[in-house]
Amino acid sequence: MSEIIKTEAVVLSKLNYGDTSLIISVFTELYGKISVIIKGGRNPKSKMGMIADPLNHVQIVVYKKDTRDLQLLSSIDTISHYPRIKEDLDKTQYSLAIIELIKKLTVENEVNKKLFKGLVRILSLIDSDNEHPSILFGRFYLFFLSELGYALQTSECGICKKEIGKNSGGFNFDTGFVCVNCFESHPGLNFASAELLNYFFCLNNKISVQNISLVLLKQANIFLDRYTKHHIPGFNGIQSLNIFNNFK
Ligand SMILES: [Zn+2]
Do 29 and 152 have their domain in common? Predict the structure, then answer.
């Protein structure tokens, strides 16, 4: 069976294929993550090849045949190319990190309209000067983890289930965050500062983040990286965001 499908999409990656063509991976609104071929896309005159750049929010039409693994792109139009992201190194890095999460941790052909909407929304927030891109990255990351089924609980203690409150506490990657009483009575837990707990609480509850230090943002990103590696075996961290060395 063959059909013509039309959907919004965000371009995740672009690879050369054969002598003249391109393969792009896209996260689409209606069909999840798919790969499509752009015949002749490497020709400098190919408009489709130019539009199909990673990060771009596009509308695509695909000629889909069930007997083929690779589907054929028949048209692509720009909805947004996020000009302010591309002229700012920090914004570019965090946006590419988000794209990398989608590329690595979603399953081919698995539809998730809510995730698609969240992805487009976070890219437009990074494009407008809403908040530091690292904070927006953190907001998206927590949303994404909950979509994957690994929500990071920031309100109730992972052991006694009471409210964590505004104090410092503890964590390990199995129990998640725990209250200060459980931290003191259970050996083997790591310390979590009140600032770190409060930061994640704000991210989870759509509260604006005030006066945050870059050191804390870095700690939070490292935490998310390790949390994800713990829960998703095979995840090797985000390569496009060098959060351990070049954090700005
Ligand atoms: Zn507790």
Answer: no
- Ligand 1: centre distance to CA 181 (Å): 6
Q: Return the pLDDT at 169.
A: 94
Long-range pairs of 20-26 with CB within 8 A, sequence gap ≥ 24: 22/49, 22/52, 23/70, 24/52, 24/73, 25/103, 26/58, 26/60
For 211, the domain range is: 83-231
Structure confidence by residue, pLDDT tens digits, 179-192: 999 999 999 999 99
Ligand 1 centre from 40 Cα, in Å? 60
For the entire predicted model, the pTM comes to 0.92
> Is residue 197 predicted with pLDDT exceeding 60?
yes
Residue 216 alpha carbon to ligand 1 centre in Å? 23
- CA 182–ligand 1 middle distance (angstroms): 4
